[in-house]
Amino acid sequence: MSETKKKKGAMDWYFKSNLLARILIGLVLGAVVGIVLGFSPQSVKPFVDNSKFFGDLFVRLLRMIVVPVILFSLVAGAASIAPSRLGKVGIKIMVYYLLTSAFAVAIGLVFANILQPGAGFNVVGDAAIKGRDAAVPTIAQILLNIVPTNPIESLTKGDVLPIIFFAVVFGLGLSYVKDSTNKTLAKAGDMLLDVTNAAAETMYKIVAGIMQYAPIGVFVLIAQVFAQQGPRAIGPLLIVTLTVYIGLLVHLVGVYGGLLSIYKLGFMKFLKGANEAMITAFVTRSSSGTLPITMRCTEEKLGVPRTISSFTLPLGATINMDGTAIYLGVCAMFIGYATGQPLTFNQQLTVIITATLASIGTAGVPGAGAIMLLMVLESIGLKVTEGSAVAAAYAMILGIDALLDMGRTSLNVTGDIAGTAIVAKTEKELDMSFWK
Ligand code: ASP
After folding, report:
1. Which of 1, 53, 290, 404 makes a 20 to 30 Å CA pair with 363?
2. What spacing in Å lies between the alpha carbon of 15 and ligand 1's midpoint?
3. How far is the CA of 284 from the centre of ligand 1 (A)?
4. Which carries the bigger pLDDT value, residue 417 or residue 392?
5. Closest CA to ligand 1's atom 8
6. Boundaries of domain holding 148
7. Distance CA 77, CA 430 (A)
8. Structurally, how many domains does the chain consist of?
């Protein structure tokens, strides 16, 4: 026994210290190591090869837990909320998600007009650069795809929207079984709900465990990005990076800060509760992958009940991408400037609409926004065809996409949390003791 005690003590400096502080140390150290490595290109590949395991491990651990977290939390949530209530929450959160996304594109465009990233670049075509076509799905297709033809298949593939659909329907069904006049059935329904709740709790315990590994995962992931891409962004693409990040910051403080204060929710308290999710999104570059942490923060640190968060957060991780919307606006402007055809006012209006829709269609995985950029460009007549100047400018953006992806994903997740807290507040379901 004394040996186990001793062993425990040996790692106390790690496990007993503040988790956020450890994650931040991992972040800063990772950035420093990455930037230093980036200046000696021959050391980058060995570093990436050798450290890949530790970064991938963090991402895999998170991904492992995504589907069970959504399923159990959402079934339990939907079974415990009246269907009419769920409908009201659904409408509120959809309005919030749509409006904030449209606003985000506009913010991106405003700053791109001021800072004019890419102006004077005169990028020309290069035959070596391949064109890409964007396949634009129809609205009917998008809606139909939400209904799974086989829920088990959606679960195994991790298709979030069909899983949400099925889990909500299952939860609603369960709520009727619970209230059945048949006593045996009602008892079994109650038991099933208890089991689902316990399963959801178990998942949150696992998430808490995974977070203990986060500082190491964060360090490795950040070091890799900076080693591979840092110096490139310090060149001519610095203005794009700056414009995107200024847009992200303004949206964070102006839109979320403003909306939260309208609903009398402190911005600092909000950031304190959301920071683990914001950092995890930053380093994993995946809203979906971050979802378990997002749900944990919202419930355990911001006092949102599971009946609301279990529905709004998986939905937000899939369709609400304010950071991506800003990125799409700025990059469309950059490509216009860089190829000597700055976007007209009408083109910018088109971008607001297409980028909002594109952000909804963006999957919560690394780099997905860059694919949707093709669709936005196409809508304003800037086709990424083989060898064209537009393709060359697009390729430049791809070169630094990881850096842009970190910030935009972090904002994507933050927007989901802010919306969830606000909707919970308007539903009088927010535990205000968390905000004191
Ligand atoms: N990586 C982003 C996310 O997961 C999506 C994007 O590429 O814009 O939210």
Report:
1. 53
2. 31
3. 10
4. 417
5. 369
6. 18-435
7. 15
8. 1
